[in-house]
Design brief:
162 residues, alpha+beta, 34% helix, 2 domains, 34% strand, Ferric Hydroxamate Uptake Protein, Chain A, domain 1
Length: 162
């Protein structure tokens, strides 16, 4: 009887511990499902407060990189958006930010090579030179922008792909 009683107590302790562990892991699982749901809701909310832009960087040596459907906060400047996809160096002057380097490719005044930005005008179906400094230009949802490392000895330089 003693052996049977010890086995019975052992089984009872095992059942209580197993049930407790099962309950603990179930509660943790439910909490993780709630956290995942919260993250999904937050991601959807971010979509509502962000803009989708596409940015082309033409390094002037045949290398062209597109950063399509990049999410940027509402109110972002083209400079901010570009800094989200590539390393940018610039100086601030009287008219705004003057880009001095993108992706480690620096302006070369001796060869008249500078970074110029363009905006795709979908109504006209053509690239248009940026009208103001990149830190002053606000991007728009669905906007398409291009940075070209261009020879500026003749003005205007050719548009992207031109």
């Amino acid at each position: 009887m003693k052996t049977g009683g010890i086995i019975l107590v052992g089984l009872l302790v095992w059942a209580i511990l197993a049930s407790s562990l099962a309950a603990y892991f179930y509660v943790e699982y439910v909490a993780q499902v709630e956290v995942a749901s919260s993250y999904r809701a937050l991601a959807e909310r971010c979509e509502e407060i962000a803009l989708h832009v596409s940015i082309l960087i033409d390094y002037g040596n045949g290398s062209r990189v597109w950063f399509n459907d990049t999410l940027v906060p509402i109110g972002s400047s083209l400079l901010n958006a570009t800094m989200m996809v590539e390393r940018v160096e610039y100086m601030v002057g009287d008219y705004g930010a003057f880009i001095t380097s993108i992706g480690g490719v620096a302006n070369d005044p001796g060869r008249n090579l500078y970074w110029i930005y363009w905006v795709w005008d979908s109504s006209r179906g053509e690239w248009v030179l940026g009208p103001v400094a990149a830190d002053k230009y606000r991007v728009s949802d669905g906007g398409v922008y291009a940075w070209t490392y261009s020879d500026t000895s003749s003005w205007p330089p050719p548009p992207p792909g031109g």
